[in-house]
Structure formats: structure tokens, C-alpha cells
Amino acid sequence: MQNFADQCLDLARSILGHNLDSVNEDGTITPLQGESFREDEPGHAAHAIGEFFRVTGETQLGNYDLIDLAARCITAQAFMTEETENGLAHCALGLLSFGPAKDRNLVWERLMEPTRAQLDKRLLARSDYDNHLQSFNIAKAVARFSIGLSKKDETGKLIDSFLTRIDEFSSAGYCDDNPHGLGGAYDIYGIQSFVIIRQALQLHSNSHLRDRKLPSLRTYAEKYIKLLPEIVRQDGLGWCFGPGIGAYGQMHCISLLMQAMRDGWISSAQKPIFLDVLRRLFYFFFVTYLDQEHGYLVIRDSERNCSDQHTTRMANFDAARSLCQWARLAKAIGGDFNVPVQPLKTFGRFVFFDKSNKKEQGLFIYQNGSSGLNFQIPLISAGRKNTSGSLAFPHCPGVFDWPVDKYLPIMLPELTFGEHVVIPAFYGKHCSTGLGLRNSYFFRYEQPELITIDEQIIPGLGSCKVSWVFSGDKITSDFTFTVKKQTQLDAMRYVIALGVPHSKYRIGTTFTLGEESLRASVIKDDFHANWADPEIVSEDSAFSSYYGKIHYLQILQRNHPFVMRASQQYRFVVEFEPDITMADA
After folding, report:
1. In angstroms, how far apart are the furthest CA atoms of the chain?
2. How far apart are CA 165 and CA 354, in angstroms?
3. pLDDT-based confidence at 113, cuts 50/70/90?
4. Rounded to whole angstroms, how far apart are CA atoms 279 and 271?
5. Reduced to 3 states, what is the DSSP secondary structure of residue 423?
6. What's the DSSP call for residue 374?
């Protein structure tokens, strides 16, 4: 993997070279035009600089004094007024990257005494989190003990607490990033948590603690690792549902895989499979998000967007940090990428994230081995912000798209009953999957009680049964609603978003729609809705996806009242047979 390591390091140099000039004298970060400064950005910059020093041993990059820049960023992060657990954790790991103890740390020597005292205070203060923020607590604890600010090491206790919470909120051992309310936000932040914890442990001054905790972490991290060969698409698209994906959906998956290979968590027999997955993930990241002409990361432009919590500066520093880590890990792993391309299989599988008498949540994965088409239907909570990215429809950028950080009932019927707006997503009961007629695969679930778009279950209103059937590239969605007493339906809405991959930053083999588009057919509609004129949104950046531009919204709607009778079934069935082609075909 030497060539891969060299390539990663060259890219990291380029990205840092384009972004270090944004570090101001006071350590804050100058945002790009149209964006705002985030108070955790200095920590991300410090961590990127620290990882570059860690892999190269260089204290100078061009005309930039890396020690001085890191000290400035750490000082700025230490004195930020708001609670910035994210930035503090990265700041702490960045500091630790320059040396394992105060008397051997180049950056610590540059810090003023007030900054040292403030950093000690900020690293000590922590809240007890039940989500991915607990991984930041672990990073802070590792740094505080290892740098010599405390003789008491809380790392082991915090890791145990993190793992205990996983068991508490998931019967299958996955990270729930928002266990409150309905619960069940099983998203990319689970992978991010393991990546951060493993990075922190690698920097821990007590190697014995690391050796003791790795087996427990492996038990849970392996669940995500085993998912990746099934969810990574033929073109290399990785985790593509929930919040915070796009470039980060690639980076976190690559980091987890490389950490697992370095630690020997992947057997020799399985290694070619995961190397092929890793190769595809990186190539998609490289082509889709890196401006190869200028050498920096592009997460938002006139065609695509990213979550508000990720600025372009932050993403560039995170990419540089990740590339440095990959370079270091690649050297430790050894070998090369000369492995055979794995043959594609046709399969349909439902992975349980949580199963209890209250609710069932998980992920249905379908792949057509002939065309390579891969869909993921997440049956999970949206977490703190309701967006389309967590809804239970087939996620497949380029074919079935959705806007970033915006709610629309994509490929799901949304019913309005007075003040309640319900949608068949977020949870299910009696989830099942299997083979149907003519080698098709089905995914079915029920909702004994309807749930609102704000994830509030409405007792006594009605129920819903959902069935998805996949036969080759043909998809049939069937929704059956029943109300428990005569009820007035005020409105019904169903939305299809038609988008395309980025015109420049895209892989030639990525999927997109041909001239005949999705070939959607409404087979049965007991709500008697009508198609509105296509809504053109190509000039509205609020409707961009993580991967490209959304041009049209096709909306099927009913805006006048309709009385639904008790115990009568109301079906809504839509078929799709998308005209799929390659982006550069």
C-alpha cells in the first residue's frame, strides 16, 4: 500500500496548503465566502496539523510554521465561549499528536500559561452523553491523562459507559445517536464514534489500557464493518442515509476499514473482499469530492450541498487529517490493492438495529447482481432534525434522490389528519424479508399506530402496512392504511425528486437516469390524488443533494377533504422501473 500512502500524503499536503492561510493570528478560521465560522473549527484544524506532523515529522509546510499554527488554533479552541465538545476533542487529539507528555510536546511548549490552565479546565469539564458526543469525552480524557494534566485516567470508565449505552438502546448492538423520544437514530455517527475512540486509544500513553479495551470495541465495531461490503455500491458510494453523509459518509467508512485491517480484525480470507470495498470507497471519494486540478475538497457548490454543521473549511481540515491517518495506516497494513474485483450478488436482507415489543428498526439492503443497482431502506429515527435522509424509501443517489437537511415525503404517502401529519417511516413491527414470486425480494413491516413526521405515535388513529418488492430493477411499493374510527383526511402528498450526479465531480460508472426517467406508475390510489405540474427547483440550492443537483419535484397530492371509514383498507401502490444508465454513457 506504499503508493496509496504516498498518494494520501500528497493530497493532504495539497489540502493543507490551500487552507492553512485561513488560520488567523488569534487562531480562528476565516470562512469561505457565503459560509460562517463555526466555533469548533480551530480544533479540527489543530488535529489536521497534528496528524500531518505525526506522519511526516515535519514542522514546516511551505512558509507555514506548523507548531505556531497548531498552538494558535488550540489557544482559540480553549477559550471558545460556547460548549464545543467536537472542537475540544479534536483540539485535544491534535495536541497529543505532537508528543506524549508535556515535557516532550512541541506545541505545549508554545502555549502561554493562561492557555494551559484553560485547556486543563476545559478538558476536565464534561457532561455525561448518551450519543456520539461520548466519544469526544473519551478523546478529552485520553489527552488529559496522557499529556500529564491528571494522574487519574477516566478513559476505561468512559469507554465502558459508551458500550453500556449501546446495549441499553439497541438489542443488536448498534449506536443510537438520539435515544430520546421514539429513539433509534442509527446513522453514520455510530461509525464516527468508533473511529474517534480508536484514534484516541492509539495516542494513549498507557498501551495496556488500549489492549484491554480493543476486544470490547471490536465486538461492536465489527457489526458496522460487516455491513460495508453490502452497502457500498459498485461505483464506491458508501453510507448514504441519515444526516452528515456525503464526503463524510466516505471518509468515516474508509477510516473504520483501515483501522480494522491494521488491528487484524479482518481475516486473511476476507481481506480481498474488504480491500476491494476500500478501493471503491476511496476512488468515489477522490473523484466525487476532490478538485484534482487545484487539490482541495469541494462539499458544496452551485450543484450540490452539505449539512449546515459542516463548513468547507472544516471538511478540508478533516479530509487532510483523514488522509494523513490513511497514509500512516496503509504503511502499517502493507500489501497492495491488487485484488480481484468481487463479483456482484443479488440479495435482499434486513439488518435489525433494534427489536423490542415497542418497535423494530433496521436497514433493508437490496442489490441486483446483474445491473449493480443497490438500494438501502432505513427504518430508523431521524434524530434531532427531521429530514428526508432518514425516511424509509430506497436511497440510491442518481436514481432516487433527496435534498440535504430538508424534509419532503420522498416516495412515501404523507397523510394529514387535522393537526397530525403522518408518514409510514421511523419504526415498524413484524419486519420481514424474503424471496417472493419469480425470484423477487420483499421487505414488509407494519405500524400498529400511525406516527407523525415529528416522530410522535398517535394512539387510536389508525395503522399502516408497508410492502416493498424488488424484482431485478423493478420496484413496487404498496401502502395500506386503516383508520380505527371514521376520520376526515384533510390532505395527502407524495413526492418524487428527480436529480442527477454532479456534472464535473462524478465517476463515469455512477448511476443516473436515462431519457425515460423512473417510469413511475400509480397502480392503485384509493386517495384519488392528482399529479401537480412538475416543480422546477434546479436553481434553488435548498433542494440540492449531497451528490448533485435536483431538477424537478413531481408531487402527487390531494388537497380537499376525504372521509376515511373505520376498518376499511385504503391502498396506495406505485411501481418503478427506472431507466438506468451510467453518468458518462
Report:
1. 76
2. 13
3. very high
4. 12
5. coil
6. E
Using pLDDT thresholds of 50, 70 and 90, give the confidence band for residue 341.
Answer: confident
Question: Exposed e or buried b for every residue in 89-103, given b needs 16+ CB within 10 A?
Answer: bbbbbbbbbbbeeee
Task: Find, among 395, 577, 378, 373, the residue nearest to 499 by Cα.
Answer: 395
- DSSP conformation class of 437: G
From 318, 185, 192, select the one nearest 252 (Cα to Cα): 192
CA 210 to mean position of chain CA atoms:
26
Confidence of residue 438 (pLDDT cuts 50, 70, 90): confident
In whole angstroms, what is the distance from residue 64 CA to residue 69 CA?
A: 8
pLDDT at 101: 85
Q: Please tell me the pTM assigned to this model.
A: 0.97
Q: What is the pLDDT of residue 125?
A: 82
Contacts of 504 (CB under 8 A, 6+ apart): none
End-to-end CA distance of the chain: 32
Match 496509496 to its residue by C-alpha cell: 4
Q: Tell me if residue 145 falls in helix, strand or coil.
A: helix
Q: Please report, as a single letter, which amino acid is at residue 276.
A: D
Report how far apart, in Å, the C-alpha atoms of 515 and of each of 467, 498, 535, 578 are.
28, 12, 18, 10
The C-alpha cell 408518514 sits at 423
Region class of 210: left (phi > 0), else alpha (psi between -120 and 50), else beta: alpha
In a 13 Å sphere around the CA of 182, the CA atoms on its Cβ side amount to 27
Measure the CA–CA gap between 97 and 200, rounded to whole angstroms.
Answer: 10
pLDDT at site 585: 59
CA distances from 256 to 281, 366, 494, 561 (A): 12, 23, 37, 51
Joined grid coordinates for residue 192: 464516527
Strands 491-499 and 429-435 come out as unpaired
Q: Is the four-CA dihedral 83, 87, 89, 95 of positive or negative sign?
A: negative
Closest by Cα among 46, 9, 93, 50 to 326: 9
3-state SS class at 400: strand
Grid coordinates belonging to 491: 390532505
Percent of the chain with pLDDT over 90: 92
Residue 202 to residue 258: CA distance in whole angstroms: 13
490 pLDDT above the threshold of 70: yes
- Contact between 465 and 450 (Cβ < 8 Å): no
Q: Which amino acid is at 438?
A: R
Q: How many CB atoms lie within 10 A of CB 459?
A: 8
Helix ranges (H only) for 353-485 are none
pLDDT value at 22 more than 70: yes
**H or E element: which one contains 162?**
helix 155-169
How far apart are alpha carbons 201 and 214 in whole angstroms? 9
**Grid coordinates belonging to 168:** 441499553
Residues 116-131, mean pLDDT to the nearest whole number: 91
Q: What's the pLDDT at 364? A: 98
